């Protein structure tokens, strides 16, 4: 499966494929916890607009995995300045990693994460930070293999008007 796989920096022609996968990433989160994770109308269109801008920005890193010319995975991160609220000095932020279901389990995710981290470090990031759903153990295993360690735990309290996710 990974024989004809190409991993490289994203180009403008990759944006629709990246946006399709970003839409799937958003829908996945929203399905698990709709109170915490938003789902906006025309989410793919929104990401198409966003990635189109981001891939041209020097502080942004977008890596794609292509099989037979189609985008089957991507990773996206940005170089960020000191953040007093997060108690976090200059860092790379890895925002998205997604591999199409048909391409999973062959090391594509690991290659994308490693490439994105290397590109952020090349931009000068002394550390790279990411967030992942507490329940997403597959992703956590991948990130640990790539050298990440658990550091923060986000907690959400739903207001009275918000239906909380079913537990269990
Ligand atoms: C998390 C995700 C990116 C992983 O992508 P992937 O391409 O399957 O990642 P890898 O192939 O590198 O690793 C996945 C598994 O395949 C195994 N694997 C990798 N190469 C392999 C090979 N050649 N042969 C057999 N197994 C292999 C890995 O050991 C790993 O096993 P584990 O889950 O038991 O730890 C993917 O599942 C995904 O897109 N999920 C939905 C989105 C998501 O959760 N994103 C991250 C949170 S933001």
Describe this structure in words.
The chain has 168 residues and is an alpha+beta fold. The chain is 32% helix and 21% strand. It is built from four helices and five strands, in the order βααβββαβα. It has helices at 15-32, 43-54, 108-122, 137-145, and strands spanning 5-9, 60-67, 70-80, 91-99, 128-130. It has a five-stranded mixed β-sheet with strand order 1-2-3-4-5. The protein is globular and about 50 Å long. The chain starts with a strand and ends in a 23-residue tail after the last helix. The mean pLDDT is 95. The structure holds coenzyme A. Coenzyme A (COA) is lined by residues 25, 28, 97-99, 104-110, 132, 136, 138-139, 141-142. Coenzyme A binds at residues 25, 28, 97-99, 104-110, 132, 136, 138-139, 141-142.
Question: What's the short version?
Answer:
By secondary structure, the protein is an alpha+beta fold.
